Amino acid sequence: MTLFKRPDLFRANSLATVALVTIASALSACTTVTDRPAQAETTLDLTEFERIFATAQTDADAPGASIAISVDGVTVWSDAFGLASVELDVAARPDTRFRIGSTSKPMTVTVLARMVERGEVAWDDTIGQYLPNLPEALKTITLAELASNRSGIRHYRDREFRDGERVWWQHFPSTESSLSLFKDDPLVSTPGDTFHYSTYGWTLLAAVLEAAAGQDFPTLLHKDVFGPLRMTDTQIDHAFLFVPNRTQFYWRAPTGQLTNAPFTENSYKWAGGGIVSTSDDLLRFANGWLDGTIVPPDLREVMWTNQTVRDGTETVYGLGWFVGYDDVISRFSDSGETVPVGLRGLSDAGIHVIEHRGGQIGGSTVLWIFPDFDIVVTGSWNMTGEGRKLYAATLQIACQTIAAQADAPEIRCSGHSE
């Protein structure tokens, strides 16, 4: 039984006020990744999109959620549902700031890319060039290996974030001080040998960027990402400071009751999972990549290419981004769940995707970029877990958005999964 069916709070401050929206794909004056010809008008059924997203939110029992879509750089839908605060009965709005978890990683790699472009660092630079006092095992890792999760640095241990252990509440006064959580631990593999997803690797990358630039990481984010893209509703998730319009965070207790999520202090992982943002700002961020505003096209293409490990095997990751559908498909199949029709349809049709997902205590976020169609879909909610429901809903909406384009191939977006 869900708590969030009050009709007056079901939708809040929507940009989409009609059931059908007609958009012209040629509206954008930006340079896109592919030179698409001018398109005919496209009709999107936003009433159906609302139904898909609201159903997923209800199934996940997420108190509040937001979603946004852009086509050719133009926002065609931005909406918020449910509650930002259950206790205070505050509606979620498009400017509500959600925890975006690991979707922070593409923002961090944007700082790295801009520093590479300016010649301040290079992909093949080693950590030891900037942080000479670290253990020897870390010094030979390159910046590219950190940004592609090929560093061999461990990810989280079992129970590391349970039972009120210190990283839930301990504040680290600097990025370098938070390296104490993992810097002396053995590597899980030789750098470059394997793909091993590691948020701690991104903490180390942030420390390198700080050392190279002589500025702290939040300043670098604002200088190189938030400021240029006018992302005024995005910032570090400071646990002890007031953050305007930040949602409350929730989880399901072992008793089954919806409760406030445990307090968590994210200073140890700002670079890899410690940012709050809005769906509208995530559209600005993604479109800055698509139109070349934030990273030049030649560098972007390098970063949007699957990296390889030492034996030549291709990974699911580029530099700061997942490339393709393999990882998200495996999230469903490995859990014994049916791969959603929209996800399978996009994959089978060969629709190129660049993406990142994030999940942490009190939040889940997805950011899907479809460069061949200049389409971005993003969604968030303020609930721990149930991320795959968010993946499925937003990919279903993405599938139908792409299928509505005049130059789209035949895509199977609905029906029964095989």
TrEMBL record:
Domain Beta-lactamase-related as annotated: residue spans: 49-386
Signal peptide (UniProt feature, chain positions): 1-29
Keyword set, alphabetical order: Signal
Highest taxon, organism lineage: Bacteria
InterPro entries reported in the protein's UniProt record: Beta-lactam-related, Beta-lactam/transpept-like, Mito_Ser_Protease_LACTB
SUPFAM superfamilies: beta-lactamase/transpeptidase-like
Keyword Signal in record: yes
One Pfam family this sequence matches: Beta-lactamase
Name listed for the protein in its UniProt record: Beta-lactamase-related domain-containing protein
Organism of provenance: Algimonas porphyrae
